[in-house]
Amino acid sequence: MSIDIQKPAPLQIGDRYYYTLTSYDPVSIEVKVPSVTEDDITWSIKAMAQRAGIEPDALDDAWVKANVEGVDTVAQLRDALRSQLADMNSHYVEQSKPSLCAAELAKRLAQAVPEAEVAHTRDMLEKSLEMDLSQQGATLDDMLATTGMDRTALAAMLDREAHDTAEQQAALGAYAEEKKLTVDDEELPGLLGMSPADAAKLIHDAKDHGQMEALREAALREKASRVAVAECACAYDHETPEEAAKRIAQYEQLDAMQRAAAAAKDETPKGDDHDDAGSGSDFKLV
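^ thats the sequence. predicted structure below, dont judge the formating
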């Protein structure tokens, strides 16, 4: 029988909370490495045909030569897609490491994140989701219709994500404190993933609205994340054929739901738009 041990509240000074970890040793993570199967390539070709408004069977050598930049035949296209998807998977693996390291650090958190902090994080996540959807010309209702998720499931998902995110941010803050990390103004653009011009505007706005400390803390957590990734022990778990087949089946299921939602709104699907590694390509149509 497991015992649920209640963690103490963090030290609070003013509006800031201070956390500690039970250990600051490098973390160990395991990264799932997607494979590139023939089904992946076929799915990518199907997505390309969908974007072009043709049936997959119509995508023959003549069509490829006339419409796809850099290749002349379907065989060449499949080879190029295989190489591109492998590169995408490698990028996906590297992108996975920061969140995995942060999740491992969060397990070492010695204090509980206050509910008010979790609620604030949830509010920010929901607003960010709505903004991302708005930029795509969609709403939360559109997303729910496309994925088959209901409001209750969405709320539960946001609750879980907010809790995990708040704990990871607290753990990264504690890690940065222990490692005595600091952030110079010159580092902000790189840590925030922005151009110097965009970062300068963000910094200017942050100063005007009294949010500079929060901006620096975000950059500091990012720096801590990079240190944790650089120090971590990483094992790689390569996807099995069965796992790859299940992933492709999920693509097909989501595609079917997207088409059903689009048909209900009397719209034409905009093509494959999955974020999963290996689910699409960026070949330029001419």
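The radius of gyration is 23 Å.
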